[in-house]
Amino acid sequence: MSEKTPDCIEVPTDSLEQWQTILDHLCSVAKIPAGLIMRVKGDEIEVFARSSNSDNPYRIGVKEKCQGELYCESVISSQKELLIPNALDDPKWRNNPDVAMGMISYLGLPLNWPSGEVFGTICMLDQKTNSYDATQKKLIELFQKTIETHLALLMEQSLLEDKIAKRTNQLQDINNKLTLLVDKQTTAELTIERQKSRDLETGLPNLHQIEAIYDREINRGTQNVGMLHIRIHNFISIRDRLGIILCNRLKVLIARKLTRLKIKDIYIGCLSEGEFGVLLFSQDDDFIEHAIKIAQLLSDKLQGKVNIDSKTFNVAINIGLSFNDNNENFIDLLRQASVATSTSHEKNSNFEFYANHLQNQLSDRMQMEALMFNALENNEFHLEYQPFMESKSGKIVGAEALLRWESPILGRVPPDKFISVAEHSGLIHELGYYVLRAAIEQIAKWGNIYDSAFYIAVNLSPIQFKDSQLSMRVEQLLNRYQVPASSLEVELTESIFFDDEQDTLYALEKMKEMGINISLDDFGTGYSSLSYLNKFPFNTVKIDRSFILDIEKSEKSQHLVSAIISMANSLGLAVVAEGIENNHQASFVKSLSADICQGYFYGKPVIAEEFAKAHFNARQAREIH
Ligand code: C2E
Ligand code: CA
Ligand code: CA
């Protein structure tokens, strides 16, 4: 059974249009002015469809109350045909409302839904006496059947729609219930999964999860992966004082400190009691430097006092770092990091690298570059001074400033290695100015205390000449420290001439104009040293160490050195012989009258204080006030 009563069933427009046509046919065949389909709704009856001829006085939608006086009411209640040829002749119908509209004859038939419920009527009305002949009666009966067939179809359709709607609702219900169930199931699974992958107290990923993250990143092709292992090394003693339950608070506290730092591209995990792991990822070349910064930051932020249960504890932390540079699997990476943590504990340092890694890195220019980046700021560079001995007086008249880098990670790095890296990265500019400033400052100090004629030679890289302000900035430094230009010498190698000859020449001439000495270093090792001697404004040539080294064994070298010296003399250039290590070399060079001698024989490069102690006579010191 339909939930709806037929009363509620809408008659669609296309059916209504057909009914209208039926009524039009009825009227035209029967030659009457009004054909109507009436529909009952509650206690009213309305004009539902009408023939469209203009003399039809009935309008669609017009309603009458059912009070027993209408023709149609009678048809409905009797469920039979009603024929009234002339209402005026019949006292029962004489006063009905249709008569008032001039309709005195009526023929009507009931219209019902297939369920037997009343729809209304189909009827014909005429202004004149009309007994409606057999054909007209047949026609209206035919139309009554047609409309009732329509009603049956409508009802069936409505029932079907109801069924479909009901079924759809049921399916929706089932669907909702299923979704709820699935949701519940998923939430439960997630909770279980979460418990499997998280540390219960801190909510941080646990060891398994960190391993899964590591594997995921490796599969994605992430280049640089680092493991930072953090151990609270006094965790056990804190736990003994607090007990296991309260000690969990310490774990949570440290976890919170870690997460609050909001460092990007890292994953923090709680590995076990008092142990955390931080995975670092990067595609950048400065990865090591980045890792060091993080290690330093964590060491700063995590150490120190914490308050738990009104007791104060000093949290002491060690950090170890390892990198997947040999495609280590997660377990190995973690093991290496934890070995480094133990080393950091032994050495009482903030953090340590896994040792193998350190060695690998030494040869790695990229990593060196990364470390150098902060080295200047961290005061990891200093200068050492190696004396120049004047042959004729036997006095120390100057020194060559040689740059030194003491890296906390790599140890002492030789300049042969790091200078080329600095040239490559462009850091040579900053580094070069540091050397110039430190050396000029040193000349000022020594000039004031010991010997105003004392000079320092500074090595300049060809890259530094790419800075068009080089000569101007050197001048500014000399002015700032009140140092005469003649106390500064710059040493250049032949590689300086490979590009931008004109710019280099311009800068060199500027310096020469100021009064700075210009020296050609490693003379004889290049291809065309001689041609440059003419072209550029040198004051001095430094005979390369390799010739001096060979002097004892090779006559050829002796001749070469001798030829270089006499040629330089004839060009009016001073000669420095470098790399003199023993007496034999020293006397040979002296015999050829080289102006200046340099080498371990006279003194190794040492820091300023030692240089002063070794080479300046205390009596030489002048009072300065
Ligand atoms: P260089 O300019 O030829 O410096 C001389 C090098 O020979 C120094 O090495 C010095 O320690 C070493 N040496 C001096 N006397 C002797 C000796 O008697 N025997 C032996 N075996 N070696 C001796 P160092 O300090 O390692 O410097 C290497 C190179 O690094 C320098 O060669 C220079 O080219 C470069 N360098 C050093 N400091 C600077 C700097 O401040 N700027 C630039 N651009 N380059 C620098
Ligand atoms: Ca030099
Ligand atoms: Ca040299």
Can you walk me through this structure?
With 625 residues, the chain is an alpha/beta fold. The protein is 46% helix and 21% strand. It has 20 helices and 22 strands. The strands form four sheets. An eight-stranded mixed β-barrel has the order 14-15-17-18-19-20-21-22, surrounded by six helices. Strands 3-2-1-6-5-4 form a six-stranded antiparallel beta sheet, with helices on both faces. A hairpin with a 5-residue loop joins β14 and β15. The protein is elongated, with a radius of gyration of 54 Å. 35% of the residues are buried. Residues 621-625 have low confidence and may be disordered. The structure holds ligand C2E and calcium ion (CA) (2 copies).
CATH class of the largest domain: Alpha Beta
Low-confidence stretches: 621-625
How far apart lie the N and C ends?
120 Å
Strand content: 15-25%
Which descriptor suits the 3D outline?
elongated
Number of domains: 3
Percentage of residues assigned to helices: 40-55%
Biggest sheet character: 8 strands, mixed, barrel
Query: How many helices?
Result: 20
Bound small-molecule species: ligand C2E, calcium ion
User: Any guess at the CATH architecture of the largest domain?
Assistant: Alpha-Beta Barrel
CATH superfamily of the largest domain: EAL domain
**How are the strands ordered across the major sheet?**
14-15-17-18-19-20-21-22
Query: What class would the helix/strand composition place it in?
Result: alpha/beta
Rg, Å, rounded: 54 Å
Number of DSSP strand runs: 22
| Mean pLDDT across all amino acids | 88
- CATH topology value of the largest domain: TIM Barrel
